[in-house]
Fold these 4 entries.
Entry 1:
Amino acid sequence: MLMSRADVAMYAAKHTDAGFLFYDPKTDPHTQQRLQLSSDLRHALERNEFVLHYQPQINIESNCIIGVEALIRWNHPEHGMIFPDQFIPFAENTGLINPITDWVIRTAIMQCKTWQMAGTELRIAINVTAHSFQDPLFVDKLATLLCGEGTCLAPERIEIEITENILMAEIEHGAKVIGRLRDLGVSVAIDDFGTGYSSLAYLKKLPIHSVKIDKSFVLNMAEDDNDAVIVRATIDLAHNLGYLVVAEGVENRDSLDLLAVLGCDLAQGYHISHALPADALILWIKNSSWVSDEVAV
Ligand code: C2E
Ligand code: CA
Ligand code: CA
């Protein structure tokens, strides 16, 4: 046990600059609890335990809701609602991420079609990890789903979110996939922008639609001048490259006002709404002050 725990600590230490780390059961993939979770995760899809929640995005200038981001949750029979940070990295390491992403895309597109048929025109943003982005069939599967099961969804209704680190890790492959998505009419957003090491020279060549400023810069931007400077610079830079800018993690009125002054295009965060189940979202839209004629409910 000593050797195996030392090994776990060494593995974790290699991912930090510290040089050494004490054993922490939280990073141990072999604990009974994690092994159990991994086995449960394998069955979660067939047992229909995943759900998507949807967090609204508003246009800052018009104050209208223009779309939503689909965020996965795992409704575990014993542990209750589990958030994605607790199982997505796990799913990536165990090869379960591709079927989960397929499920997310299928469910999000079906939901968007349902809203469309009910007269609610919303754009939906879907998170995709490196594994799924590297799936050679990714774009074809998406195209099939857009026009499957009797109804077609306009491709502009879908936005794929990938983090800048995924893109930078395999820039040539990434550029090809983004190009194919653009040909299909599906747009791409760079997620968590500012946390990675994007090469701007590369970024400007990519047919990206928008960048999402990471919430770590947005959360305290109204109080922290340094954060505000980073947000301002990112907005200017992205606009100069022709991209739309989304700020995530907007938790208060002051941040939203400041973003408006800085010319940010879209906002998402608890100040507007948390992520909601599909039915609750429609109720929220009906009663919300953020809505105008742009969305017909
Ligand atoms: P993300 O893509 O950066 O998603 C935004 C996260 O910030 C969400 O957490 C959201 O609930 C949270 N958030 C939104 N507004 C605020 C705010 O005002 N303040 C704060 N503090 N947080 C806010 P969530 O749902 O726990 O998702 C965490 C991460 O899990 C996501 O980060 C994304 O990377 C990943 N994820 C979520 N759904 C999926 C999915 O369907 N597939 C994949 N591959 N990853 C997903
Ligand atoms: Ca995202
Ligand atoms: Ca993000």
Note: The longest helix spans residues 97-117.
Entry 2:
Amino acid sequence: MPAMRLDRFLANAGCGTRSEVKQLLKKGMVTVNHAVIRLPEYKVNTDMDSILCNGKEIRLSGCRYFLLNKPAGYLSATEDRRQPVVLDLLSGEDRKNLFPVGRLDVDTEGLLLLTDDGVLAHELLSPRKHVEKTYYAEIEGIVTGEDVIRFREGLDIGEKKKTLPAKLVLLDHDAQAIPHSRIELTIHEGKFHQVKRMFEAVGKRVVYLKRISMGNLKLDETLQKGEYRSLTAEEIEGLKRNAEK
Ligand code: URA
């Protein structure tokens, strides 16, 4: 499918979000076959045209990689008969053959990688790779220094083995009628409902959960909930390095 809108081509190649790319076009920084093109909807032939941004040749890599800021209420799946799925948040052209790399619960928000690169997804999800994931969470109850130690030592969440050492960072808490704590937690596994089960193991309940990083990828705070962008070439390289480890 070589014909594509110029703004989509540039965004998919990692030059920026759709609105950043529109600014690049407006400023006359993009040429197609040596002519400056300012129209976002201009159709390019992705196989044949020579497309330069700021004088640098832009190409699409074979596979596609998107970072989504997942809102609550969407299943991490490609389709479902009853509930909206994360792919519903992508435009028709982008969603083809994509799938989410791993799962966030329906009520969890934040960083979700979507790709059509099955090899990379398999490597990133492999339990042997221990890809680091960090979550921001709000917890009912006061999370204590003792919890920090228990998370570091590993917890019994009803699996054969204890969880791997996890880094729990206390951000702050309000000691109101129903006390709440804000924390960040870094884990190296991806067991079903893992963060929620780890807090249950210390008698507390997660009331809000958001993934803020996975390996080298950080949740892009400029993305509103439900928005997504292509990964930059650097981010893709970093992910591939994570997967090789
Ligand atoms: N741990 C959970 O409990 N839920 C998620 O969505 C991700 C990690």
Note: The pocket of uracil is lined by residues 104-105, 108, 193-196, 209 (CB under 6 Å).
Entry 3:
Amino acid sequence: MGNVHLIDHPLVQHKLTLMRRKDASTSTFRTLLNELSTLMAYEVTRDMPLQDVEVETPLETMTGKMIDGKKLVFVSILRAGNGILEGMLNVVPGARVGHVGLYRDPETLEAVEYYFKMPQDMQERDIVVVDPMLATGNSAIAAVNRLKKLKPKSIKFVCLLTCPEGIAALQKAHPDVAIYTAAIDRQLNEHGYILPGLGDAGDRIFGTK
Ligand code: URA
């Protein structure tokens, strides 16, 4: 599958399996999501440009390399995206943050926008959209449609879990958006949930069910 990065590092796979367990507590689920997102941030930022920076060690001056974190925007699809956001900010604390509020119409499964707030100067920034579940793809497509109007330098999409239907939908609408995921599950059910999946990510992060 073109433009899909499956992050199969053993630590990522181990933590994801623990998160899938139906008896994992809210606090365990949240902690694992935070750790897993931090690990995924390594892969997603792998091709970030580096700048030469002069640095004085205790012994001499040298040229080191640094990223410009402020050029990066993490865009969280509310509310479940915030779980990934926190973990990513652990390793890129200087990144800017945007939020897109979308809910799924339970009948049509279409994404309906209720909130959109981004940093300024988006044309100069690389965007990483975060949402734990790429299921029907409707929210991801709606978010990317909206973000492309701001003409950012690039857009990547990071999720924990997806399925063939979600990948196909997002790739059809936005073939230029690279998808990073820790797993590609079997299928969607008739309610738009991923099987075997991990249930409702928002409910599991926030303990709302
Ligand atoms: N959103 C979720 O939280 N879980 C799914 O399985 C699909 C969409």
Note: The chain has six helices and 14 strands.
Entry 4:
Amino acid sequence: MSEGILVAVSGFSGAGKGTLMKELLSRHEGYALSVSATTRTPRPGEKNGVEYFFKTEEEFRRMIEEDAFIEYARYVDHYYGTPKAYVEEQLAAGRNVILEIEIQGALAVKQKRPDTLLLFVTPPSAEELERRLIGRGTETPEVIRSRLDRAAEESAAMGQYDYIVINDDLRRCTEEMHGIIQASRQTAAHQAGFIEQIQKELREREETRE
Ligand code: ADP
Ligand code: 5GP
């Protein structure tokens, strides 16, 4: 069995990443969603260990010192980081692991592991982004403004991603994302183990014929 694909999914806050990931995991097998650590406070309904592991700054710093993260970044006044152990364990078990992380983090992961698939999720327009952020109703108008400013900055990095995924219709977008990930499993680079095995089998058959 080949290792799973490591997929970093980024996109503007409010683009619909969380919604898409839930849909992907409920419709398809073989995925694991990495749960990040963060120093931000939980939103209503968020539970420790489900959406995030909620940490104090001191706890987060200790995890950095212990080298427990694949990557971490500061985003709008808080730290966010990807714990390493779960990701490695799930990849080895053949599952595709999704990291829902912002751009600096995604690019850092790609540097460490060049076979990481980078997906950027965006709504079809800026107007729709603002509508979704307001509609979600979880942030104050000031926080929404700072997230829209951040989105303008982040759009500069979109060209560094492998695929741009436009989240207009949720179902269509989910299937498109699943298709991209499945196709990535079949790249020659990802199938290096299989290639080696069949080359060996063919050589052995050649030898027995001689
Ligand atoms: P993110 O995780 O990227 O910050 P969310 O998943 O919280 O974004 O989505 C932001 C808001 O947009 C939510 O209220 C969600 O219900 C809504 N939303 C997500 N995807 C779609 C879509 N395809 N069409 C319309 N609304 C959507
Ligand atoms: P939110 O506060 O809306 O849950 O997340 C804010 C941003 O942090 C989002 O862009 C989200 O994808 C990103 N994020 C979540 N977890 C991580 C992580 O472990 N590392 C990095 N670099 N970004 C993360």
Note: The two ends are 31 Å apart (CA to CA).
